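Good morning C.,

I know you're traveling, so I'll keep this short. The sequence:
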Amino acid sequence: MNGLSTVLILVGLFLVGGIVSFVKQDMPRSLIVLLSIGAAMCLIAGILRMEWLFG
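The C-alpha cells, ready to paste straight into the viewer:
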C-alpha cells in the first residue's frame, strides 16, 4: 500500500463521515448524493491503487 492509496482511502472515509453527518442534519438529497459519489470514487481509486492487490 503506497502513500497515495492511503490518502485516497482516508479521504473517502472522511467523506463517508460527512455523509452520515449530512443525513442527520437533513441536508438536501442532491448534496448527499454528490458527496456519496465523491466518497465512492475516492475509495475505489484507493483500493485499485493498492500494490498488493494486482501485484
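Safe travels,
E.
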